[in-house]
Amino acid sequence: MSTAVFDAIVVGAGSVGMPAALFMAEKGLKVLVVDQFASPGQGSNKCAIGGIRATHSTPAKIRLGLDSLKTFSTWHQIHGDEIDWVQGGYCFVAYREEEERLFNGLLKIQKSHGLSIDWLGRQELANLVPGLNPEGLRGGTYSPEDGAASPMLACLAFYRRARSLGVTFRFGERVTGIMRRRGQVVGVRTDKGGYATGTVVNAGGPWARTVAQAGGLDTPVVPDCHEAGITEAAAPFLKPMVVDLRPTPGSRNYYFCQHVKGQVIFCITPDPALIGSDRRETSSFLPMVARRLVDLLPRMANLKVRRTWRGLYPMTPDGSPIVGRARDLSGYVHAEGMCGQGFMLGPGVGALVARLVTGQPAQGDDQVLAELSPARSQGRTEALK
Ligand SMILES: Cc1cc2nc3c(=O)[nH]c(=O)nc-3n(C[C@H](O)[C@H](O)[C@H](O)COP(=O)(O)OP(=O)(O)OC[C@H]3O[C@@H](n4cnc5c(N)ncnc54)[C@H](O)[C@@H]3O)c2cc1C
Questions:
Q1: CATH of the domain at 252
Q2: What domain range includes position 114?
Q3: Percentage of the chain surpassing pLDDT 70?
Q4: Is the CB of 174 under 6 A from ligand 1?
Q5: Inter-residue contact 335 to 374 (CB < 8 Å)
Q6: Residue 46 CA to ligand 1 centre (angstroms)
């Protein structure tokens, strides 16, 4: 039997791999996507709560976020699939001088890269988020063009589009080796067979390090456990995604929004980080997050929680993604380490990867790639990771 040959093979049918495959297919490439799980989006993608923002602290992420927003906000109109996109904006609340200074300090860079964002005073913020605890509130930022969508519906929509463009999928198949000859990728080995290609994209999410090692490379991505939950549906009362960066014992930032169908969906960052790939939810998450939610928005006390779950952030040491060509293996492309923002960055990163692989850069790609370079020193930490 002859080996199937592809222009590019994407490892991972998740938040990043799916848009990367479809954008490469749009450029005329013959693409294969391999995923160890049974269907699209079964890794971290389905665990995301769906927040989509360009409100970041670094130029590359702002730019990729703005690019992704274009894809999400126009998808239904252009392609017809419902992905539950809602443009409610993002609101970062400040109760301490520390956050007030941080958010105001970032406005200049955010605005200079085209982000629509402003500082709102106490009263304006209280109008935007009715019922917000006024005690100690100093104000916050609001970026009205950010929003949210359903990660599962979006991934499915991208999958359908990719299939219609001729992308081949192999589910339930694990990549075990990346074959090389004289410093060049020549194929991929899986637990079920092998495929020939000159280009491999590592979109392996929290498992990206194992994928890199299958090619004799490495990447500093670790799986970092985060839990989330969803309440019963309520009448609309909350427009933006609300983010609170204040740490409390056991947790750091947390964020929540009201889904288009009425449920409030929320997530928290544990402190210290829970490094590992155990995806079983815990009994300690809900009491911790509920206290913080009710403290910030007392009316939340009346909502019943329906379900909680646990997923993995693909974390990098500095909180920024790793995207670009490998220095030591021609044809190998990094598209990993999305941290807590892979759903919102996915289309932007996917389109960037497609331009990189086809050698058709857009203006500004070189700066983005320099900032996210696999060879960068992981020193400076992204402030809104
Ligand atoms: C609780 C929670 C809430 C979150 N909320 C948000 C949010 O609101 N907004 C946001 O943008 N992000 C959010 N995230 C983060 C987001 O889910 C991730 O950043 C994103 O899904 C990562 O995308 P990815 O494509 O890199 O990885 P994934 O979506 O996990 O895709 C990687 C895929 O690679 C496959 N794979 C790996 N290794 C192999 C192999 N060897 N062979 C074959 N297949 C392989 C996996 O099976 C997987 O399907 C949240 C995450 C969690 C856990």
A1: 3.30.9.10
A2: 87-145+222-315
A3: 99
A4: yes
A5: no
A6: 8
Whether the ω angle into residue 223 lies within 30 degrees of 0, i.e. cis, is no
Specify the residue with its C-alpha closest to ligand 1, atom 37: 204
- Do 231 and 208 sit in the same domain of this protein? no
CB of 311 shorter than 6 A to ligand 1: yes
Cβ–ligand 1 contact at 314 (below 6 Å): yes
Give the angle subtended at the CA of 232 by the CAs of 231 and 233, to the nearest 5°: 115
Establish how many alpha carbons lie within 13 A of residue 305's alpha carbon, considering only the half-sphere containing its beta carbon: 20
CB 89 within 8 A of CB 147: yes
Residue 36 falls inside a structural domain: yes
End-to-end CA distance of the chain: 47
261 and 324 fall within a common domain:
no
Q: Which amino acid is at 183?
A: G
196 and 292 in a single domain? The answer is no
Residue 66 lies in a domain: no
3-state helix, strand, coil in the chain (%, to 5): 30, 30, 40
Q: Is a pLDDT exceeding 90 seen at residue 330?
A: yes
Mutate which of 339, 343, 353, 382 for ligand 1? The one with the most ligand atoms within 8 Å of its CB, which is: 343
Could you tell me if 303 and 161 lie in one domain?
A: no
Can you list the alpha helix ranges (DSSP code H) found in the chain? 17-26, 59-79, 97-112, 122-128, 151-164, 208-214, 285-296, 342-358, 365-371
Question: How many domains are contained in the chain?
Answer: 2
> Between residues 378 and 310, which one has the greater pLDDT?
310
Q: What is the pTM of this model?
A: 0.97
Ligand 1, residue 17: give the atom nearest the CA.
25
Higher pLDDT, 201 or 282: 201
Same domain, yes or no: 127 and 238: yes
Flag whether 82 is in a domain: no
SS3 225: strand
Q: Are residues 141 and 228 in the same domain?
A: yes
Helix (H, G, I), strand (E, B), or coil: what is residue 141?
strand
| Cβ of 228 below 6 Å from ligand 1 | yes
Q: For the segment 16-49, what is each residue's pLDDT rounded down to a tens digit?
A: 999 999 999 999 999 999 999 999 999 999 999 9
85 C-beta neighbours (distance < 10 Å), count: 22
- What is the 312 CA–ligand 1 centroid distance (Å)? 7
Residues 233 and 283 in one domain: yes
Query: Two tokens at 21?
Result: 């495959």
Neighbours of 37 (CB within 10 A): 16
